[in-house]
Amino acid sequence: MEAAVMVGGLLVAQCILAGYVVFVHHVLALGANPLAIILIAAVASSLFFLPFALALERKKWPSKISRTLLAQLLLIALGGTTLFQELMLLGIKKTTPAIASAMPNLSPGLIFVVAACFRLEKFDKACKYTRAKILGTLVCLVGAMAMSFLQSPISSSSPQLTAISEPEPAAADGTYYDWILGCSYLLLAVVVLSLYTVLQAATLASFPAPLTMCSVTSMMGAVFTAILQLTVEGKIDVGSPRIDLAIISVIVLMGGGVVGGCVVFQTWCIGKRGPLLVSIFGPVQTVCSALLFGQIVSFGSLAGMALMFCGLYVVLWAKSNEEGRLDGGDVEKPLLS
């Protein structure tokens, strides 16, 4: 029964996350400011997690916050909340929800590379599992490049969103340039995701309070985002008069509540069965985004997605077979979440 609940819940969670990506794409098409979306969702997420952190993790809080822990929390907030989400939203705005949902499937391979660079992951060229992870990472990168370069920006546009978005009389070359720029934003976002995930795993080793960490870093990220918007634009603004109270309420409920609930459920699944189970369901979000968005996906882009998913599962297969040979203190064990 527990396994059935996990599988069904993870499928539902990925569908919800896909729906949120499509909704964010719709809001950006209306002219919303990406920084404003991040700010609203981060504050809502922090307030959502805070009661659970107080009830479940208060005894785990340290009596004194060290400088190292404070620096780690600040970097996680800056990278995970502000920088990662800004790059993701810029990428979503210039591409499609399906492409944006597919790119994070690169993260397991990139996390392996980052962890190996910081010597948090055992790297043995003679080990077949290490070679498999390297091969899977390369296949993922090739798939991501194929998916980016072989998809037509014009054919991938949703007619519904094209009708409501601002008219942009750009040439075809300019449209393709925006597409490549958007894919570059998404790739950079995944790199940032990999970096702060490694840092997050290392921080949780000394501060085992994930709900508290989420609440604190979300609020810190909201502050960083507000400072950035004030510095760049001189004011905090949603970006368009079409972003009314109803849309803001949906951002609060979905970004802070529903998506936050999905994160909590995925964290529970990781604690019960490990991170690989959660990672396996990543491609479901991509498929759901494509179906919900109603986009036309080219054959070349589909081939790129297939390569990315194959590379993802090669990395996950290698990691699952290697975990039995790792010492208990390996910090990289929970990084594929």
UniProtKB/TrEMBL annotation:
Gene Ontology MF terms: transmembrane transporter activity
Membrane topology annotation: Multi-pass membrane protein
EamA domain segment(s): 10-148
Location, primary (coarse class): membrane
Record Pfam families: EamA
Superkingdom classification of source: Eukaryota
Name under which the protein is recorded: WAT1-related protein
Sequence intervals crossing the membrane: 34-56, 68-92, 98-120, 132-150, 179-199, 211-231, 243-264, 299-318
InterPro entries reported for this sequence: EamA_dom (IPR000620), EmrE-like (IPR037185), WAT1-related (IPR030184)
Subcellular compartments: Membrane
PANTHER family attached to this UniProt entry: WAT1-RELATED PROTEIN
Keyword line: Membrane, Transmembrane, Transmembrane helix
Cellular component annotations (GO), alphabetically ordered: membrane
Taxonomy of the source species: Eukaryota, Viridiplantae, Streptophyta, Embryophyta, Tracheophyta
Signal peptide range in chain numbering: none
Family: Belongs to the drug/metabolite transporter (DMT) superfamily. Plant drug/metabolite exporter (P-DME) (TC 2.A.7.4) family.
